[in-house]
Each structure stands twice: as C-alpha cells, then as structure tokens.
Amino acid sequence: MDSNTEVLLAARAGAAGWELLVERYSRLVWSVPRSFRLSHADAADVYQCTWLCLAEHLTRVRQPEALGTWLVRTATRQSIAVVRARGREVSLDRWEPASTLPAPEEVAVAGDRQRRLWTALMTLNERCQRLLCIAAHSPELSYAQVAEALGMKVTSVGQTRTRCLAALRRKLEDQR
C-alpha cells in the first residue's frame, strides 16, 4: 500500500491497516512534541492524544494525501495545550541542591543565547520556523516525511532549509 488513501481505507477496515498507518507516521508525530521540548511523559501524552483524535475522526478525513499535515497540526495543538498547562504549574524538579546548579553567569549567558535564537527564529516565516524546528528536533526524519508534513515538494526541502538557515544566521548577526 503506497498511497495514504489505501492506508486510510485499510485503517478504517481493521487493526492491520491502523498499524500500518501508525508505522508510517509515528516518527513524524513524535517529532512535534519533541520540538516543543516536552518531557517524555508529556510527549507520550501528546502522541497518544494525536492518534486518539485521528481514530475519532478516521471516517471524516477528506484529504488522505494531507494526512501528515493533519497529524502535525493536531500534535502541535496538543503540545501547545500542554505547554500552556505546564506554564501554570511549579515543578518540584526545579528545586535542586545549590551544588548542582550552574554559576549565575553561565545561566545568564545561556539564557541570553536562547532568547536571541528564539527571537530570531520567531521573525522567520512560519514555513521556515516549522522546517527548522523539525530539522533540529527530529533529524532522523527523511526529506519525504518532512515534505509531507509541511506540504512541500521533496526536492525543495534541502534548498528551503538552506535558505531558512541563512536567514536565521542573518537575523542572529543583526542582533549583535
């Protein structure tokens, strides 16, 4: 089974088709919560919720060839919900003995570097943001999987990534 339509029809018909669907898109779905830097437990929750949403909407998918994009968007929404919920909580894991904490200047430098990187990244267009986040957090994904998730041609993934990285470098240099 090559096309998403065939795989989707098989998934609607039974467990073997569902397993093929999960096998095809598992790494892509995992890449999304990883790009949000969620804990393993939270990423697993997002992963399962994404598949549950697909199971609930399996008969309503109208564009099987855009299934990768649908899964990425669903996982993104789930990840954002987790980030928002976790932002309201105070984790006890953050309280560490003073001897294991980095020096204040190390924290300041690292924080500044991260802030500048995220600021520069957020000024890029959405396509570049998504492409670079997927590339950074899931380098094992093939160009075909990345292309499907972003709705672009496989042949343009490398060139687009190169242009996006160059734009990010320029933005970072402009901040100095």
Write a compact overview of the structure shown.
With 176 residues, the chain is an all-alpha fold.
List descriptors:
176 residues; mainly alpha; Rna Polymerase Sigma Factor, Chain: A; Arc Repressor Mutant, subunit A
CATH C-level name of the largest domain: Mainly Alpha
- State the share of residues found in helices, binned by percent: over 70%
- List the secondary-structure elements in sequence, H or E: HHHHHHHH
Number of strands: 0
General shape? globular
The CATH superfamily of the largest domain is known as RNA polymerase sigma factor, region 2, helix turn helix motif
Question: Biggest sheet, in brief?
Answer: none
Please state the average pLDDT score. 83
Segments where pLDDT lies below 50 for 5+ residues?
A: none
The CATH architecture of the largest domain comes to Orthogonal Bundle
Structural class: mainly alpha
Number of helices: 8
CATH third-tier fold name of the largest domain: Rna Polymerase Sigma Factor, Chain: A
Task: Give the N-terminus to C-terminus distance in angstroms.
Answer: 52 Å
Rg, Cα atoms, Å: 19 Å
Our count of domains comes out at 2
